Amino acid sequence: MVAILLSSFIVLVFICLLKRIKIDFSVSIGLLLFILISIVSTVCLHQNYTASLVPNSEGIAISNSFAYFIISEKYWTITLFKRYADVSTYVTIALIIMLVPTAILEKVLIDKNKAIT
């Protein structure tokens, strides 16, 4: 949940910066930023899951700070790590699938606006 809020904050700051320097912003650019953040989190969570599969005498631990930021201090199990990694993968795939119709819809709306003016 915190990761979603942080990602939203980063995207909103980026949007404000784009508007401040007079660059036209589109929804697909914001969605692309969410996709990039989601890809990074997915890679970190999968790396954490695969690192937890290696047996050691100290038990399991979170292997990177980004995964720790997402998972935090819950009851760590390999199943929990896998669940987080899988959900992150599904969210990333859903965002990528959403990018295509969003970009097409924006293109159609921009073309209609140009035809009207």
Strand-residue fraction?
Answer: under 5%
Helical segment tally? 4
Rg is 19 Å
Q: In the residues, how many domains can be counted?
A: 1
- Decide which structural class fits the backbone: mainly alpha
Topology:
Elements: H1 2-20, H2 27-52, H3 65-71, H4 78-116
Helix pairs in contact: 1-2, 2-4
Q: Concise description?
A:
By secondary structure, the protein is an all-alpha fold. Helices cover 78% and strands 0% of the residues.
Describe the structure.
This protein has 117 residues and is mainly alpha-helical. The radius of gyration is 19 Å and the shape is elongated. The mean pLDDT is 80. It has one domain.
Keywords, separated by commas or semicolons:
elongated, about 120 residues, about 0% strand, mainly alpha
